[in-house]
Amino acid sequence: YSFASVEDLDQRIGALAPVRSFSDASDPLQDDVLAPSRTMLAQYRTDWSYRPDQAIRMFPKARYFQISLFRIRPGTEANFGQLIRLRRATADAVNLDRPELAYQVFSGAPAGTWVFLAPIASLRSFDDGKNSMPVYAEGLANARAKDGSQIALDTEISREHLLFRVEPRISYVSSDFADVDPEFWRGKAK
């Protein structure tokens, strides 16, 4: 909620983490899986998020997170905003059940970096593919796709989509958070 809270959290996590050297090539932890982390500071953007209230409610039940990273050209934030509005309108037209939270990165990544987090309860949702477009919305969606393609070409430098799995054994969540699905977060009662 504030920069002071970021600093406090960083100090608390630092006190819990074991000290290890990544300069020793014989260290078994020195590999791609545990490469040194990078810290990014970002500002939450409600106005660019898609159904953020639903996204927050999904966090305790999320088993995966789809992370989308966008880098945009300097001075094209308004165009990127238009692209995001087109994207949200299309998602609404098909009633896409994939809310996401938007963050504008201001430290730890190149300028113009945006991060979108979408909680995913199950990968089975990808098996269904995209929701089919209702007939009444096809023309509108096609027009949006053409507009969006041109805006993306003019605005985006890069786009990357990552999928992360939630590991409850190494997650530190509050009791209120875990109470939504205690078997997942705390393990089966014996």
| Residues in β-strands, percent | 15-25%
Order of helices and strands: HEHEHEEHHEHH
Got a strand count?
A: 5
Q: Quote the distance from N terminus to C terminus.
A: 38 Å
Structural class: alpha+beta
Quick one: overall form?
globular
Biggest β-sheet strands, sense, barrel: 5 strands, antiparallel
Q: Averaging pLDDT over every residue, what do you get?
A: 80
Number of helices: 7
Question: What is the CA-based Rg, rounded?
Answer: 20 Å
Residue ranges: pLDDT <50 for 5 or more in a row? Answer: 30-34, 133-137
Helicity level: 25-40%
Strand order of the largest sheet: 1-3-4-2-5
Short characterization:
With 190 residues, the chain is α+β, with helices and mostly antiparallel strands. The chain is built from seven helices and five strands.
Commentary on this structure:
There is one protein chain. With 190 residues, the protein is α+β, with helices and mostly antiparallel strands. The chain is built from seven helices and five strands. It has helices spanning 3-16, 52-58, 77-93, 124-127, 138-155, 175-178, 182-186; strands at 41-44, 64-72, 101-107, 113-120, 156-165. The protein has a five-stranded antiparallel β-sheet with strand order 1-3-4-2-5. The longest helix has 18 residues, at 138-155. Mean pLDDT is 80; it is low at 30-34 and 133-137.
List descriptors:
five-stranded antiparallel sheet, globular, 5 strands, single chain, 190 residues, alpha+beta
Topology of this protein?
Blueprint: H1 3-16, E1 41-44, H2 52-58, E2 64-72, H3 77-93, E3 101-107, E4 113-120, H4 124-127, H5 138-155, E5 156-165, H6 175-178, H7 182-186
Helix pairs in contact: 3-5
